[in-house]
Design brief:
This protein is of the alpha+beta class. It has two domains: about 90 residues, Alpha-Beta Plaits (2-Layer Sandwich), CATH 3.30.70; about 80 residues, ACT-like. Chain A, domain 2 (Alpha-Beta Plaits, 2-Layer Sandwich). The protein contains six helices and nine strands. β6 and β7 form a beta hairpin. The chain is elongated. Its EC number is 2.2.1.6.
Length: about 190
């Protein structure tokens, strides 16, 4: 029997089929990475993503422990479950990384983002923008005779919804912080 014939007749019991069953579905995951607060760490984390062609949807970084000199990086990324597992494993191997958590799979978490939206308009558009801001609990943080700057906090979906409603009313500029997230406490 030739090698070609054996390969074609291989069954699912072949050693080539022993890898875990991963889905091809692209998922969004929120990862938190506790790192040393030192020069170059963020560049190394970002380099891991760009070097392997992974996309970052959102990125926030801040020092969270002044005495221990630790920063927390929150990354929202997308990929298949296999890609997400690769990202977590590769992040864990970077030397100044202390801990990698995938809040998406570890249980309930709280995610918030802050956005500033500049909306220009007069007359009915101005009144409608203020009405919608009230519904979404957005605050007016700056106002002129022709524009407002709104501040809104909430889930990324809430900010997306608010900004989409503001577009036809005169949205001219949008700035977003990116997601900050924490795991909820166990009950």
């Amino acid at each position: 029997m030739s090698a070609l014939h054996i390969k074609q007749g291989a069954t699912s019991h072949s050693a080539y089929n022993l890898r875990p069953n991963f889905s091809d579905t692209v998922e969004t995951h929120t990862l938190t990475v506790l790192v040393d607060n030192e020069p170059g760490v963020l560049a190394r984390v970002i380099g891991l993503f760009s070097g392997r062609g992974y996309n970052i949807e959102s990125l926030t970084v801040a020092e969270v422990d002044h005495t221990g000199h630790h920063s927390r990086i929150t990354i929202v990324t997308t990929g298949t479950p296999q890609v997400i597992e690769q990202i977590k494993a590769q992040l864990s191997r970077i030397v100044p990384v202390h801990r990698v958590n995938d809040l998406t799979v570890e249980g309930p978490s709280v995610e918030r983002e802050l956005a500033l939206l500049k909306v220009e308009g007069k007359g009915e558009h101005r009144v409608e923008a203020l009405r919608l801001a009230d519904i979404f609990r957005a605050k007016v943080v700056d106002s002129t005779l022709t524009s407002f700057v709104f501040e809104i906090t909430g889930t990324p979906e809430k900010i997306d919804a608010f900004s989409e409603l503001m577009r036809p009313l005169g949205l001219v500029e949008l700035a977003r912080t990116g997601v900050a997230a924490l795991a909820r406490s166990g009950e």
